[in-house]
Structures are given as C-alpha cells and as structure tokens.
Specification:
By secondary structure, the chain is α+β, with helices and mostly antiparallel strands. It is built from 7 helices and 19 strands. The protein starts with a strand and ends with a helix. Bound molecules: the ligand N[C@@H](CCC[C@H](N)C(=O)O)C(=O)O.
Length: 331
C-alpha cells in the first residue's frame, strides 16, 4: 500500500502523523502497533517518539489515537494533540475544534504565536484525576501529593496524578536533574513492578523563578523525550498546589526541546484543568510503499521538507540559553 505521513513535533517531542480519515486507511490494532514499532525506530529513516493516528469521529471534528514507540497505546498526548489540532484545523479551515481522545473530548484552538511566527495551538488537558487507582498505582493510600515513596527513593518526594495518562512527578534541585536518579527510578517503575503495573511517565521538575519551571520527562513506552505535554501540564499543576506558582496565570515551562506555556485553571471542589500552549511544527511529508504485514521493509517514494523548523530554532535557542544558565550551569 501507499502510506502518507507528516513528521511533526511539539517542543521537539516528535511524531509521525497518519491521517486514516482522509486517506481512507482502516488499520487493525495490530497494524497500528506494528507501524509504531517499525517507523518510530530511531534506526529507521523516520524515527519518532510515537505515531498520531487521525480518525473520523461521530461527535467531534476528529479522533486522535496515540501509539508510543514501543507499540503501546497511550490515553493522551499533549504535544501530539497540538499537532493533530493544527492538522485538523487546517483541513477543516477552522480556528477551534474538538478532538475525541481515549478518555475525553478536548478543545483545541489556534493561538497567537508563542515566539516569532511559530504555528501555536492551545489544547485542553483534562480530566485531572488524583485517585491512585486511576493511574493505576498500588500503594496503601488513595492520593499522593508531595509524599515519599520509600520503595523508589529514600530522599525525594513525589506526586502522582492522571491527566488522564499517568504521571509521577518530583520537584527537585538541579543536582538531581543531572544525576542518574530519574533514569533509575523510571526504569524501575516501567519494568515489571507492583507499584505501577501499567508503568508511568516520570518527571523531574525544577522551579526557576515564580511563573517559570523546567521539566524533564522519562516517558512510558519511549524513554527520555525532549518534552512531554501532559507531564508539563501535570507538573505545572503540582507546582501550583505546592504554592510555587499561581492558578490562572501563565507558567513558562522550559524543556530540552524548547518551551511551552501552561495555565492551570481551578474549577472548584478540587477539580482542575490545564491549557497547554505551544508550537505545532511540521518537518516534512513523506509517501512510502509498504506491506502492512511487514512494515519495516518500507520504501520511501518521496519526501517534501517544510521550511518552518528554521523559525522554531529561534525559540529553541532562546530556551536552550535559559536552561543552560539556570539549570545545567547552576547544578
Ligand atoms: N508525549 C506525550 C505523552 C505520550 C504518552 C505517554 N508516553 C504515555 O504512555 O502515557 C505528551 O506530550 O503528553
């Protein structure tokens, strides 16, 4: 078959976007999983953190399904939703759309550029669930906010929440960002273990100043990525709960691929949602020939590069200088 895809990224969290809706594809679950394993492999000509499948939806403008590089399916992807949001907004010639995801229908709207002419989208991150059985996390309590977990660290504290994909977050000093601790904790809770039977995304967060944080995430099903949108949203919420940032105010979230903004909204009665605002950048579009029974043997027929990455590099350089001076050099 012929397969069309777009390589895109949100904060350097990179994806292959495959539109099943317009191209008339109708993959089986196994085919989606095998496409993720074959095409996300960094040793292949593509390589990505995941595949974003765009499907039609009965009640929304489109439906997004997200497959991690290891072939597992995730319930949500914040950076990916900005890319899918841009794709569907441009396809339907709309400024605001609603995208069906595994557990919620989420609003996406085009927004004023975050930095010098960069296509920018604001996506809703919701629902936010603190009940540990929603991650799931097996521990003898119902919620966990800034508490220790002696099984994985004798000195760090953690918060656990689902947005609705699962996140384990620790607010740390710069010395922890550069140590091997995050990798070792993330590998423990993403290997065979009793605490997180389905694995969990693990983020270390370092507050820079009021209204500004740095987040590094080891993603379930992928490993360290440049950025994780749901993790940056969940981390922003945790810093508001810890009174390091303010609800309702924009928080600059720096990451290894650039920067986004997050607004954490208090909805009352302990309920929250977040607005994740950042780039949706296209790198190239490609056409391949492959057999779905053997997708790793693909042949790339054509590739057209977009030119917008050059503009994104300005934001990336700005973010890099902040991260290097405030995180890496002060460690
Ligand atoms: N990169 C994503 C999250 C992708 C899914 C995650 N690895 C999971 O398994 O939950 C984001 O931007 O949110």
């Amino acid at each position: 078959m012929d397969l069309n895809l777009i390589k895109c990224h949100g904060s350097g969290n990179d994806f292959l976007l495959i539109d099943e809706m317009t191209n008339g594809y109708d993959f089986t679950e196994e085919e989606r999983q095998n496409l993720a394993l074959a095409l996300c492999d960094r040793k292949s000509a593509f390589g990505a953190d995941g595949i974003l499948f765009v499907l039609s939806s009965e009640n929304c403008d489109a439906r997004m399904r997200v497959f991690n590089a290891d072939g597992s399916e995730a319930s949500m992807c914040g950076n990916g939703l900005r890319c899918v949001g841009r794709y569907v907004c441009e396809l339907l010639d709309k400024e605001t759309i609603v995208v069906q995801t595994m557990k919620a229908d989420l609003r996406v709207c085009s927004q004023e550029s975050i930095f010098e002419n960069i296509p920018t989208y604001n996506v809703e991150i919701s629902p936010v669930l603190f009940q540990l059985d929603q991650l799931p996390m097996n521990i003898d309590r119902t919620t966990l906010v800034n508490e220790s977990i002696p099984e994985i660290s004798d000195h760090l504290t953690f918060s656990a929440l689902a947005v609705p994909n699962p996140h384990l977050i620790s607010v740390v000093g710069t010395e922890h960002i550069l140590s091997n601790e995050q990798k070792s904790i993330a590998e423990t809770v993403n290997g065979p273990n009793n605490l997180f039977p389905d694995g969990v995304n693990v983020s270390f967060v370092h507050p820079l100043e009021k209204g500004s944080i740095y987040v590094r995430t080891y993603e379930r099903g992928v490993g360290f990525t440049n950025a994780c949108g749901t993790a940056m949203s969940a981390s922003s919420l945790v810093t508001c709960l810890l009174q390091q940032n303010e609800f309702g105010q924009e928080i600059d979230v720096y990451n290894n691929g650039g920067k986004v903004r997050v607004v954490v909204n208090e909805l009352g009665e302990g309920r929250y949602n977040m607005e994740l605002i950042g780039n949706a950048t296209y790198l190239y579009q490609s056409q391949l020939e492959l057999s779905l029974s053997n997708p790793e043997q693909y042949h790339e027929v054509s590739r057209q590069e977009f030119t917008e990455e050059a503009m994104y590099e300005h934001l990336q350089n700005h973010a890099k200088s902040i991260v290097e001076s405030k995180v890496f050099m002060s460690a």
